[in-house]
Each structure stands twice: as C-alpha cells, then as structure tokens.
C-alpha cells in the first residue's frame, strides 16, 4: 500500500507500519458518498493484504471527523478524479436500490473496518454523527478531541441508523442506553461520550494527533500475530456461548503459543528486558 489521494480522503504511511486515512473535504464536513465508501473499502482490502501495514488510523480535516452522508453528492454520479473505480449508480431510488446500496456499499464499509485483523483507531477531531459515528464505532479504539460531538440523530430526519449503527451502539452502551440515545436523537460532547463508553479517551484538540500517534506506535510494536488473533476472538466472543468462546480461543492459542513472538516474549521476561516482537515483519519494512 502506497501513499495516495482517493475520493474524499488520502492515505499516508508512517513507521512502523501505520496507515493514516484522512478525510480531506472539510468544506463538506467530510460527508460520505458512495464513491468515497467504495474507495475506502478497496483501500482497506489492500491494507488487509499488505504485511507492511500494522495499524490503521481514521481522522478528519477541518472541524469534522465525518458529519454523516453528503446527501447532495448522491445526486451526482460523476466519479472523482482520484477515484479508484468508475462511477456506479448511487442507488436509494427505489426499495431494492436502497437495500443494495446499504448491503454492498454503506454497510460493507463498516464491515470492512470491523473485519480487518489489524487494529484500527478513530481519531475523532470534531463532528462525528450518523455515518461518521458508525464508522468511528466500527474501529477498535476511539480517541476524541475535547471539542468533538458524537451522535446518531437519524430520527431528526426520519431516517434509521441503517449502516449497522444500532448494533454498534448496543455493543457499546447496552440496551436501555442505546434506546435512549437513538430515540431521543442525542448528540453528546466528547466527555459525555467517554462517560457512556463510546470513546476510550478524550484529549485536547491540539494533542489529538500526538495522542493518536502514540497509541498507534504502541499497538504497532506489539506482537502482531497474537494481537490480531485476540482482536478476532474478542469480537467473536460477543456472539458465542461461553463454551464456544473457550473452544474458539483454544484454537487460536494453538497458533500463538508456537509463534516466534511468544518465544521472544517468554525469553525477554526471563532475561528481564523489553521484548523485540515482529521479527517476521522486518522484511516488509
């Protein structure tokens, strides 16, 4: 995966294997459209297959992380000059169009983020509502600027959180708080989001990039095989019985226990030194 500009965002790779995906349409509050979502899905597929990438960061430019869908853009089928693929019909013009647009583009983006075995961070720099909120909640870690605003509020337009937002909120908030959050169309401050459990950390806006970079480097230097197996196991545990979850992590442990990273971790502990993980990744740097 190389640095590049795409439909509504750009990708910059930083050491050690951190892909920064920055939405670059601040004049549109980084609103989403079908072309941007499809390019994001393709980029995430490339990242998944690129051994040089260890961690993915999402961040917005300007005063918004992502303020939902850019509804005006759905009327325009002209492709961006940076688009990876030709334009496709935006859908949503009839019942089947809405179903297919959601399943194959909008929902597919959040699924692509969640299915990455590499860890993801949402650096919520400002407004994150509707599509922007669900994208952030699809990530493994969420760091918010102190002036950020987060919410679903789809009912303000008579719409549904149709990109999987109801599921993601339920995972973060539980049933009663999700019902309250959605039905009362809440948009909350970053500190309220922290109290609710929507984000992991709140930092001053000026320190957001640095705090995100520090976390990304920490995660990138960890034992990648075990971390990726554990990520998948944690998400699967949400859907499994206890016995099934035990069996599932036993199968993954059969891999991780015999990996060189584990041998290095044990040796470092015995020798009272810091471990040097990911030797297998050095050839990709």
CATH fold annotation of the largest domain: 2-enoyl-CoA Hydratase, Chain A, domain 1
The chain-level structural class is alpha/beta
CATH superfamily of the largest domain: 2-enoyl-CoA Hydratase, Chain A, domain 1
Number of domains: 2
CATH architecture of the largest domain: Alpha-Beta Complex
Number of helices: 10
Fold and architecture overview:
The chain is an alpha/beta fold and 285 residues long. It has two domains: 4-220, 2-enoyl-CoA Hydratase, Chain A, domain 1 (Alpha-Beta Complex); 224-284, Lyase 2-enoyl-coa Hydratase, Chain  A, domain 2 (Orthogonal Bundle), CATH 1.10.12.10. Helix content is 44%, strand content 16%. It is built from ten helices and eleven strands. The strands form two sheets. A seven-stranded mixed sheet has the order 1-2-3-4-6-8-11, with helices on both faces. Strands 5-7-9-10 form a four-stranded mixed sheet. β1 and β2 (9-14) form a beta hairpin. α1 runs parallel beside α2, α3 packs across α4 (165-173) and α8 runs antiparallel to α9. The longest helix is centred in the middle third of the chain and has 21 residues, at 95-115. It is globular, with a radius of gyration of 19 Å. The N and C termini lie close together (12 Å).
Sequence-ordered SSE layout with sheet pairings:
Layout: E1 4-6, E2 9-14, E3 18-23, H1 34-49, E4 55-60, E5 64-66, H2 95-115, E6 119-124, E7 127-129, H3 131-138, E8 141-145, E9 149-151, H4 165-173, H5 175-183, E10 187-189, H6 190-196, E11 201-203, H7 208-220, H8 224-237, H9 242-256, H10 260-271
Parallel strand pairs: 3-4, 4-6, 5-7, 6-8, 7-9, 8-11
Antiparallel strand pairs: 1-2, 2-3, 9-10
Helix pairs in contact: 1-2, 3-4, 4-5, 8-9
